[in-house]
Structures are given as structure tokens and as C-alpha cells.
Amino acid sequence: MLEKKYILINGLISLMMIIALYMVSKELSSVLLFIPGVVVSFIVCIKLSNKIHDKSKSLLSWYLIALAIQFLHFAEEYLTGFVSKLPAIIGQEPYPLDYWVTFNMVAYSIFVLGAIALHKNTRSYFIIPVFFIVVGVILNGVAHVLLSFYTGGYFPGLFTAIIYVILIPLIIRSGFK
After folding, report:
1. In contact, 73 and 167? CB cutoff 8 Å
2. Residue 72's pLDDT band (cuts 50, 70, 90)
3. In this structure, how many other beta carbons lie within 10 angstroms of the beta carbon of residue 55?
């Protein structure tokens, strides 16, 4: 049974993430994507915390590989016009580039802290790596592939998303089974 303090701390971090995401998301699509991602991540974190705790060292290696891919994913999106192509699909104006870059850099800084939580095997902060895995890896990987099918061709971020699709079962096996 997971101690109440771990649930409380991860819950408070989740709440802070939701508030911060709501406050910095200038685009409705970001709020609709990330806030449910926090809720799902919290549930996964609480349900699988013992497994993550037992396998944090093996998960850490895959987590860091995925984080390295995320940096490349950001570069691919940046260079191929993601900030204008995604909003166009949902009838919005392009995302302001300054906002989008800042949002991503802040998120990646937090994801690095998630690696420290895994390295230190600190259950109180497992929500951070779980959120990155659920939203950054799984949702990102699947969404970019689906967007490419939807648009009938390359969609910004597809190539690195394919790497994520390959990594997803390895990450799940290393830390959640």
C-alpha cells in the first residue's frame, strides 16, 4: 500500500501542474491536451508507484533515451513548422513562437527533474517522470503518427515520433511490468 504522504505530495504536484498549465497555455488546445494528461499520469503514478520504485534504475535509462529523443523531437517540430501546422488543423492562428519555445524549455527542465526522481528513487516526485512518459512519449508518439495519417503526408514531428512508437513497449516493460 502506498503511503498517504506520497499520494498527497504527488497530488499537490499534479494540482500545481494543472494550475501552471492552465495559466501558461495561451491556446485552448494545450489545456485540453495536457490537463487530462496530468490526471491520467496521477492515476498511473499512484497505481504503479511500487513497480516504478522497484524498477526505477532500469526505467531511468529508457527515460533518459526518451528525453534525448524529446529534444530532437522539439528541433524537428521547430524546423518543420509545427507552430503553424497544428493550429491550422483545428482552425486556430499559429502559436506565438516565443511562447511555444519557452513552454517547451520549461517543460524539459521539469522532465530533467523527473530523471533525478528516478535516479534517487523518490516516490514523492514520480508524477514528473510518469507525466513525461504518458504525455511526452506515448501521446506524442501516437498523436504525430495519427496526424500524419489524417493529413495524408508528413506532419511535423513524425520522424522522432516513430522512434517513440518503437520505445513505448521498451519503456513500459522496463518500468511498469
Report:
1. no
2. very high
3. 18
Which structural domain, as residue segments, surrounds residue 27? Answer: 4-175
149: Cβ contacts below 8 Å, ≥ 6 apart: none
pLDDT tens by residue, 3-60: 888 888 888 988 988 887 777 766 656 667 788 888 998 999 888 888 888 888 889 9
> pTM of the prediction?
0.90
Q: How many CB atoms sit inside 10 A of residue 76's CB? A: 18
User: How many structural domains are present in the chain?
Assistant: 1
Residue entry with cell 535516479: 119
Alpha carbon dihedral 108, 113, 116, 121, in 10-degree steps, equals: -120
For residue range 75-118, what is the model confidence (pLDDT) as tens digits? 999 999 999 999 899 888 898 888 888 888 888 988 999 999 99
**Whether the Cβ atoms of residue 56 and residue 175 lie closer than 8 Å to each other:** yes
As a whole-number percent, the residues of the chain with pLDDT over 70 amount to 94
The tally of CA atoms less than 13 A away on the side-chain side of residue 32 is 4
